[in-house]
Amino acid sequence: MKNAASLFVLLCWFVTAAIAQEQTNPKKKLTYNTWSVGIDAGKSISYTDIMDYDFFPKDFTYWGTNGSFFVNKQISPFFGLQAHLYKGSLYGIKGPKTFAASYFQYGVNSYFSITDLLFTNVRHKKVNFYFLVGAGLIRFRTYRKTGDEVVEAFGYSIPDLSQGRPTTEFVIPTAAGINVKLSRDFDLNAEVVLQNLVSSDKLDAQISGNSNDKYASGNIGISYKFGKKENHYLAWISSREKQEFEEKLAKKNKKLIDSLNNALIQVQNKLRVLDSISNALPQPEADDDGDGVPNSRDDEPNTPKGNMVNFRGVSIIKLKDTVKVEKTKVVLDTVIAKDRELLFSIYFDFNKSDIRQEDKLKIVEAVKKLKANPEYLMEIRGHADKTGSAQYNEQLSKKRSQAVVDMLTDEFGIDSQRLIRTYSGEDELLSSKDDAINRRVDFIIIKPHKK
Question: Is the backbone peptide bond immediately before 159 cis, with ω within 30 degrees of 0?
Answer without folding.
Answer: yes
